[in-house]
Amino acid sequence: MRYLIISDLHANLEALDAVLAESAGQYDKAICCGDLVGYGADPNPVCDWVRTNCPLVVRGNHDRASTGMDDLEWFNPVARSAAVWTLEHLSRENGDYIRALPRGPVLIDGFQLFHGSPYDEDEYMIAAAEAGQAFGYMEARLAFFGHTHVQGGFIWNQSRVETILRTSINDASQSMDIDPECAYMLNPGSVGQPRDGDPRAAYCVYDGDTHRVTYHRVVYNVSGAQQKIHAAGLPPILADRLAVGR
Ligand code: ZN
Question: Is-above-0.90 flag for pTM?
């Protein structure tokens, strides 16, 4: 079984469309690590696609915030105003779907899925030290997560935790074999709002038969997504940051 693993779509339809065009035929099942909505201007089309095509999705913090499940006081003003806008524009059907999404971790076919970390869906695992603690909470040797919008993740090689760097800006993909002696928490990167310095949409494909993970980056219509953000009256910084991937 080959899995398309996507995360942090953030209502960016242009980015999702590019990922789907590029990954077509490369996977059997699509799964999602959360944050379908929030920030971008297309919450309903993005949510419609996930609802129809992803049999397994865990919720993210923006999914909770944008559907009235969370108090917004902990969000910064930009994220808060995007969450309020999304709440006003999300269809009832999509709102109900998002509110019913499971909190990670979820175990599927021998690997785990969560949004932030295995013990807290809102935890940001940015440095190897944070990931080192988190490995102790894993219930499988392999997990996929999101939340940081940074492609890569972490390997525990029995003695230490190492950081996996995102795909080089000069490459479209990089592959890695999963060593059964090690443990992995892998971040496909963000489809809709990359923050690792590369504005290209990010995703990965995991082949469960060959135990190989391939990280991908794909150029998409950034200006189209930006124009929609401006037209929607969302904070302009949400459009600006897409161009730089920060
Ligand atoms: Zn996110």
Answer: yes
Q: Where are the beta strands (DSSP E) in 114-245?
A: 142-144, 152-156, 161-164, 173-177, 183-187, 201-207, 212-218
Distance of CA 190 from the midpoint of ligand 1 (Å): 7
Q: Residue 16: pLDDT above 80?
A: yes
Q: What percent of the chain has pLDDT over 70?
A: 100
- Ligand 1 centroid to residue 148 C-alpha, Å: 7
- Cα–Cα distance between 112 and 221 in angstroms, integer? 32
* CB of 58 closer than 8 Å to CB of 39: no
CATH top-level class of 2-243: alpha beta
Ligand 1 center from residue 159 Cα (angstroms): 31
If you measure from the C-alpha of residue 181 to the centroid of ligand 1, how many angstroms do you get, rounded to a whole number? 31
Distance 182 CA to ligand 1 centre (A): 27
**Average pLDDT taken over every residue of the chain:** 96
What pLDDT does residue 95 have? 97
Q: Decide if 98 contacts 133 (C-beta within 8 A).
A: no
User: Ligand 1 mean position to 90 CA, how many Å?
Assistant: 17
* Residue 128 φ then ψ, to 5°: -60, -30
- 203: exposed, middle or buried (C-beta count within 10 Å: 0-12, 13-18, 19+)? buried
Helix axes 77-89, 43-53, angle to 10 degrees: 70
Compute, in angstroms, the gap from residue 48 CA to the centroid of ligand 1.
18
Instruction: Report d(CA 162, CA 174) in Å as an integer.
Output: 17
Residue type, 228: K
Cα of 189 vs centre of ligand 1, distance in Å, is 10
